[in-house]
Amino acid sequence: MLVYELVPGGNLDKRLHSPDPEQLLTWEERFEIALGLGSALCYLHTEVEQYCVVHGDIKSSNVLIDSSGQAKLEDFGLARLLHHGADPRTTEVVAGTIGYIDPEFVNSRRPCAESDVYSFGVLLLEIASGRRPTPPAGRPGGASARSSDARRTCPRYVWPERRLDAADVRLGGDFEEMEMERVLVTGLWCAHPDSSQRPSMVQVMSFLRPEDAELRVPPAHRVLELETSHGSTRSSLASTTYHTPPDSGYLMTDQ
């Protein structure tokens, strides 16, 4: 018999995207969830003896909310244990949810903490904007869409002069601007296409927590492409145009 903790708040995906206004999370609740998830990842990456635990599937539907509004990170089915300081080994099967998966991981097949940081960055932007990483597949701009126009394929909050415009309109402007800006800018750095430019989770928490933290907006960058296999056909997908339903649609590539 397995006994689990009751988490009546549901998952973060439903709370962010439900059309029911009663389910809408306030900015204060969202910010606390972001901090809680950041702390959880910081622990997994740095505080497990001898190992870095790479979760491998950070996304809003894998975050549960308890009765006190605290976030619970679940589903460690894709998690990997990596020795601190050791080079990650190449994996034969790449798995993760489209829209959140790190394109560098797909291309290199080497799981690492930086891949979790990328997914966390996407999730931060989702928390702040109230929008999934991309439109649902089958709709204009969905998974099959391609565009060479960076202003179409990249979120509009990449552009410094408009980043607060990305805040979820359903919040009605009821948020702390400094907190919103820190979440958006930190999310952009975490989701940087170059993993060497991404902060560690320790740095992420130092950006999110202090009121006097300063972090410049990363410059607009090219859309990183990755190679995926669908049967015998290989194709390229822009990293900013993925989408699958939150609980399904794994990107699997066999060596």
Can you offer a commentary on this structure?
The protein has 255 residues and is α+β, with helices and mostly antiparallel strands. The protein has a domain at 86-254: Transferase(Phosphotransferase) domain 1 (Transferase(Phosphotransferase), domain 1, Orthogonal Bundle), CATH 1.10.510.10. It has 7 helices and 8 strands, in the order ααβββββαααααβββ. The strands form 4 sheets. A two-stranded antiparallel sheet has the order 1-4. Strands 2-3 form a two-stranded antiparallel sheet. A hairpin with a 2-residue loop joins β6 and β7. It comes from Triticum aestivum (Wheat). One of its GO terms (cellular component) is plasma membrane. It is a single-pass type I membrane protein. GO terms for molecular function: ATP binding; protein kinase activity.
Tags for this model:
alpha+beta; 29% helix; two-stranded antiparallel sheet; 255 residues; disordered C terminus
Task: Describe the secondary-structure layout.
Blueprint (H helix, E strand, L loop, with lengths): L11 H6 L9 H20 L4 E4 L8 E3 L5 E3 L6 E4 L9 E2 L8 H6 L4 H17 L20 H4 L23 H14 L10 H8 L16 E6 L2 E6 L14 E2 L1
Antiparallel strand pairs: 1-4, 2-3, 5-8, 6-7
Percent strand equals 5-15%
Q: What is the CATH C-level name of the domain at 86-254?
A: Mainly Alpha
CA-CA gap between termini: 38 Å
| Counted beta strands | 8
Structural class: alpha+beta
Succession of helices and strands? HHEEEEEHHHHHEEE
Binned, the helix content reads: 25-40%
Strand order of the largest sheet: 1-4
List the uncertain runs.
138-159, 222-255
Cα Rg: 17 Å
Per CATH, which architecture of the domain at 86-254?
Answer: Orthogonal Bundle
Shape estimate: globular
Biggest β-sheet: count, sense, barrel? 2 strands, antiparallel
Per DSSP, the total helix count is 7
CATH homologous superfamily designation of the domain at 86-254: Transferase(Phosphotransferase) domain 1
The average pLDDT score comes to 78
Could you name the CATH topology of the domain at 86-254? Transferase(Phosphotransferase), domain 1
